[in-house]
Design a protein that fits this description.
The protein has 12 helices and 15 strands. Helix 3 links the parallel strand 2 and strand 3.
Length: 431
């Protein structure tokens, strides 16, 4: 299947099936794509939603689609259609929206193709695999008038919404620094050897836009996060949630002009390419954003919850500071740093249900402004992670042009804004 004929078909099909209005009683048919891990969570969250059906599941692994069908049935969702080729799924005119829980390197192409096919999209974080892709996703969503929500569910969790509102109201004065923390224990992935592709796996499609490499089980399933071809390290995995909260709390709708990131892969001698220890600093001029990744044994920080992991955000202002994590937010004021306010979630910790409900609400309203994490927000937060990784990989500070979303005349850095795409899995310049 060649790129241009495929793209032409998708655009034509999109024009034919795109909805412009929804009634309150119209059922939304959703297809969940990538159903081994996070995709199973998607299935479980869609089925209880009003007037919503998991109408199809899609995965390159037949074993995973079989398990997904069983899960849908077990949860009372009936029997969904099964697809193993995402392109065939997009031809199904009965599907209204796709929910992408694929590897990071598929997020952009999966979203753009869906927009061209007239389907709305819920795409997992990080929105993109690189900065250029993220901008193309925004362009596609706007051009085809699609609703595209990014899976940064913190934006739909009540105590975090309240915390950010308090920052807007000046609870700690003028904010001069935001710090995001991803202290998440990761064990060594060891070393693996190339080998045969498992039965029932479409490895070519799994690679998609990524370069062709021999199959290696150590680069497959969850470990793909730790390779540059397919993942973005923990700053783009768990970390992008906290990066988004940091930018959200600062109230920044642009990207910074300067970034520096350092670190390394320490302690372990294994196949992992991305760092397990990383520190990034972003300069916004009137405020600083600092982000830290620790995948090894470490301590906590300040009043953020400490058990195995410490994952959250700290905001520092002229009158005090705030700590936010999944369990609570706490406000400290004055020179004595006295606790003056706290709040806790009313629902489940890391609950994706409200975020998916918000997505479906926007699908019905046809207003991307109703989304809590529109693709533009997802693009900007993912771009911060990508900027940090580019600085880390080059080993130097970088100057960024937020208007053009380039590193000016820095050819070496600009080369990492995008990637070479493997045909026919090409993210188009003109979406």
């Amino acid at each position: 299947m060649q790129e241009l004929p495929r793209r032409a078909f998708v655009i034509t099909a999109g024009a034919a099936i795109s909805r412009t209005a929804w009634g309150a009683n119209d059922r939304i048919n959703v297809a969940v794509v990538g159903v081994r891990g996070r995709g199973r969570d998607h299935i479980a969250e869609y089925i209880p939603q009003n007037n919503t059906r998991v109408a199809a599941v899609c995965d390159i692994d037949t074993a995973q689609t079989e398990r997904a069908v069983q899960l849908v049935s077990k949860l009372g969702g009936g029997t969904p259609k099964v697809y193993h080729d995402y392109r065939k799924l997009l031809e199904d005119k009965t599907i209204d929206a796709v929910s992408l829980a694929t590897c990071n390197h598929w997020h952009a192409l999966g979203t753009i193709w869906a927009c061209q096919a007239g389907k709305d999209v819920y795409v997992e974080k990080p929105a993109s695999h690189n900065i250029w892709e993220g901008r193309k996703m925004v362009e596609a969503a706007r051009k085809y008038r699609r609703i595209v929500q990014v899976g940064m569910q913190s934006r739909s969790i009540d105590h975090k919404i309240r915390a950010i509102q308090l920052l807007r109201e000046g609870v700690i004065g003028k904010i001069y620094m935001a710090k995001g923390l991803c202290f998440k224990r990761r064990v060594s992935i060891g070393k693996g050897a190339d080998g045969p592709v498992p039965p029932g796996v479409d490895y070519d499609q799994w690679l998609g836009p990524a370069p062709m490499r021999p199959f290696n089980a150590n680069r497959f399933h969850y470990n793909w996060h730790w390779y540059w071809d397919t993942g973005n390290g923990d700053i783009g995995n768990q970390g992008v949630h906290e990066m988004d909260i940091a930018r959200w709390g600062l109230g920044k709708s642009t990207l910074p002009r300067h970034v520096f990131s350092s670190g390394g892969k320490f302690v372990y001698d294994d196949d992992q390419e991305t760092p397990n220890t990383q520190l990034a600093t972003f300069d916004y001029g009137d405020a600083q954003l600092v982000f830290e990744v620790r995948g090894l044994i470490t301590g906590g920080e300040d009043s953020l919850r400490t058990d195995t992991n410490t994952i959250g955000n700290l905001f520092f202002g002229s009158d005090g500071y705030m700590a936010i994590d999944s369990h609570s937010f706490q406000v400290y004021r004055g020179e004595k740093r006295e606790k003056v306010l706290e709040g806790r979630p009313t629902g489940k910790i890391w609950d994706t249900g409200p975020h998916i409900a918000n997505f479906l609400q926007a699908v019905r309203s046809r207003r991307h402004e109703d989304l809590n994490a529109d693709i533009l927000e997802g693009h900007l937060s993912a771009a911060l992670c990508h900027m940090a990784n580019i600085s880390y990989r080059l080993g130097r500070a970088l100057t960024f042009d937020p208007d053009k979303e380039t590193f000016g005349e820095d050819r070496e850095a600009n080369a990492l804004l995008s990637r070479n795409y493997r045909k026919p899995y090409v993210v188009p310049d003109q979406v």
